[in-house]
Amino acid sequence: xxxxxxxxxxxxxxxxQRVIIAGSGxxxxxxAHYLAEAGFEVTVLDQGKAGGACSRANCGYICPSHxxxxxxxxxxxxxxxxxxxxxxxxxxxxxxxxxxxxxxxxFARRCTHQQVLQTGQVLQSILDASxxxxxxxMKRFSKQCEWxxxxxxxxxxxxxxxxxxxxxxxxxxxxxxxSATRLDNAGLTALEPGLRAxxxxxxxxxxxxxxxxxxxxxxxxxxxxxxxxxxxxxxELQGVEKEGGKVVRLQVKDGMLDADYxxxxxxxxxxxxxDSLECSIPIEPGKGYSLxxxxxxxxxxxxxxxxxxxMGVSPFENGFRLGSMMEFVxxxxxxxxxxxxxxxxxxxPFLRSDVDGPTEDTWYxxxxxxxxxxxxxxxxxxxxxxxLATGHNMLGLSLAPSTGRLIKEMICGDEPHIDPSxxxxxxx
Length: 428
Ligand SMILES: Cc1cc2nc3c(=O)[nH]c(=O)nc-3n(C[C@H](O)[C@H](O)[C@H](O)COP(=O)(O)OP(=O)(O)OC[C@H]3O[C@@H](n4cnc5c(N)ncnc54)[C@H](O)[C@@H]3O)c2cc1C
What we know:
It is a single chain. This protein has helices spanning 5-10, 26-37, 75-82, 98-109, 113-141, 159-176, 185-191, 213-226, 337-347, 396-412; strands at residues 18-22, 41-45, 61-62, 90-92, 152-156, 181-184, 201-205, 209-210, 230-232, 237-243, 246-252, 255-258, 261-264, 283-294, 304-306, 311-315, 319-328, 359-370, 376-379, 386-390. Helices cover 31% and strands 25% of the residues. The strands form 4 sheets. Strands 4, 5, 6, 7, 14, 15, 16, 17 and 18 form a 9-stranded mixed beta sheet that branches. A 6-stranded mixed beta sheet has the order 9-2-1-13-20-19, with helices on one face. The protein has 10 helices and 20 strands. The model is unreliable at 10-14 (pLDDT under 50). It folds into 2 domains: 5-55 and 215-282 and 373-427, FAD/NAD(P)-binding domain; 66-96 and 144-211 and 284-370, 2-Layer Sandwich (D-Amino Acid Oxidase, Chain A, domain 2), CATH 3.30.9.10. The chain has 428 residues and is α/β, with parallel strands linked by helices. Flavin-adenine dinucleotide is lined by residues 22-28, 45-48, 52-55, 58-61, 236-237, 265-269, 288, 290, 323, 365, 367-368, 390, 392, 394-398.
């Protein structure tokens, strides 16, 4: 039930300190977890269903091997070519948007080898810290969310692809201590009989894990509700009221909500709140799609990436998901049939199983993309009691627990478990 301003005032003091989290994707949920554990009274509001946006039908990988940021040398060439190719898995649609141009310019400036190493180090710290937290969380949730420790298999159709990735693999090993098992064709099909014969090979990152994201969100929200966390669904944030350098209340469609602290975990929508929060939040939506069908009989066993096609395959207990694409097309809500066809067409050459089964779910998600590939986690620069937890790019599921823990540490004034300075909103 919503507790509105007057009600809140009458129950002041005696009560616990109160936090409102705007946005209940996996990041908002993770923040709620650590704040509730620390003894705060927590309300999470969302314009839709909890866990219902970009955190719903993604690929479900928790992948500490994903250290290289998107700002790789050559990335801007791929982006420019994609302007003229609507069928490319990566697609940039030119729009008269100063924010998009600024974003692209800042992104392009960072596409150097040196930046890959620097950003990679900062990403690795939050990826590894999150994985440690997941191991603790999964003592409670592993069965409910289909947690798997089968690693992540990168599969290549061509020798050219294998050899190109060998450089990245070597870079990961030499600079970050992350190593994969390199598999030739025979080794690949021995490990994963669901793959077709004749593929060039693959790399198996055994430290990666996976889960069913919808099931995680559902189990986590149910557990938090039992602990007393309030989830307000279909409750759109409409305004932020400030007084004396603090946020005092949020305006939602049915009234006002007060709290002591406010966390803004609004994913790809975050940039819309730049003016209200008086700070730059340079996030563009990076649209991706997934298509889920029944698990076919000879489904592969491992979660897999086919990097040449820029797509992922996620086998679940009963489902089978193909996910891919990165489109910079603004806040576009369509799911074009040609994009779903591309998912099936891209998967077909790799898999023995039928990829043309009846569709059970089609989905798009807007990834919250920052131009430096790093999340934004920290206090809003001009506002004492407001925090941003957003900008998790392609890794929100993988980075959620450490983000939630950092937010809790910042609000409580605790020693942070990792150095958060590189994620600060002050960098913009
Ligand atoms: C195809 C695809 C595959 C992916 N696979 C993976 C993967 O395997 N592993 C991984 O780690 N990541 C993956 N990701 C990325 C991951 O899904 C995102 O990084 C993550 O979901 C972002 O979480 P979030 O909580 O920030 O955003 P969201 O889940 O989008 O949550 C933000 C919430 O804010 C709410 N909101 C916005 N505005 C308002 C408002 N005004 N009032 C109230 N509520 C509001 C929205 O309704 C939404 O629920 C994938 C993404 C895609 C598209």
